[in-house]
Amino acid sequence: MRDLLAYARPEPYDLQVIDPHSVLTGIVERHRHAAGRSGMIITLSDAFEGKSRIKADFKLLEQALTTVVTNAIEAMGEGGQLAIAISRSPARGMIRLSFGDTGRGIAPDVLQHVSSRYFTTKPGGLGLGLVLTRGIIERFGGTFSIASTRDVGTTVTIDVPVA
User: Fold this and answer.
1) Reduced to 3 states, what is the DSSP secondary structure of residue 145?
2) Separation between Cα atoms, residue 82 and residue 31, nearest integer Å
3) Is 66 in contact with 106 (CB distance < 8 Å)?
4) Cβ neighbours around 113 below 10 Å, total
5) Nearest to 147, CA basis, from 110, 116, 106, 96
6) FRET partner for 143 with CA separation of 20 to 30 A, picked from 57, 61, 75, 94?
7) Which of 143, 145, 146, 158 minimizes the C-alpha distance to 105?
8) Measured between alpha carbons, how far is residue 57 from residues 7, 20, 145, 148 in Å?
9) Residue 134 contacts residue 63 (beta carbons within 8 Å)
10) How confident is the model over 42-93, as pLDDT tens digits?
11) What CATH architecture applies to the domain 2-161?
12) Mean pLDDT, the chain, whole residue set
């Protein structure tokens, strides 16, 4: 329901200087116990050692990144690894946040629709999570992409502006 309301009535946002490492550390910590119960491993690497800063709205960025992490965990089921990395983007003035999972991957015919409104493969899903995530990232001047190989895994790549 929260996703439906957020889609229908986007929140105003407040661009701030944010440390992406601290945002991701908090998200990882909130998911680590549940992931561990399923035999999953979540890692976070930071090429900047916590010294990078980006421009974003903290609450909305946290919502978007939580959606990505939650989707990855749900896609992996039992076992697997989610590798989260903060690095320099090839795009000038951007920092890259990447989320690579060892889940079942996404079939090409499904991949082309995963960021479409109301498209879902989850029973009871609304099909708005990744739509909202992409919209949030683009509102901050960033980019969002998904690459996937069936039976290998999926990587979500988010580039966000340096502060």
Assistant:
1) strand
2) 11
3) no
4) 14
5) 106
6) 75
7) 146
8) 17, 11, 20, 28
9) no
10) 999 999 999 999 999 999 999 999 999 998 998 887 889 999 999 999 999 9
11) 2-Layer Sandwich (3.30)
12) 86
Nearest residue to 76 via CA among 155, 163, 153: 153
- Residue 126 sits at φ, ψ, to 5 deg, of -95, -20
Look at strands 94-101 and 81-88 and give their pairing. antiparallel
Contact 126, 120 (CB under 8 A): yes
Candidate ranges 94-98, 107-111, 147-151; pick with highest mean pLDDT: 94-98
Q: Where are the alpha helices (DSSP H) in 9-157?
A: 20-37, 58-76, 108-111, 129-139
Q: Locate the domains of the chain by residue range.
A: 2-161
Which CA distances in Å does 77 have to 30, 38, 62, 70, 158?
Answer: 17, 7, 23, 11, 23
**Residue 6 token pair:** 């957020």
C-alpha distances in angstroms, 161 versus 72, 87, 114? 24, 12, 24
Residue for token pair 């409104």 = 117
Q: Answer whether 131's CB lies under 8 Å from 150's CB.
A: no
**Rounded Cα gap, residues 135 and 162, in angstroms:** 18
pLDDT at 31 over 90: yes
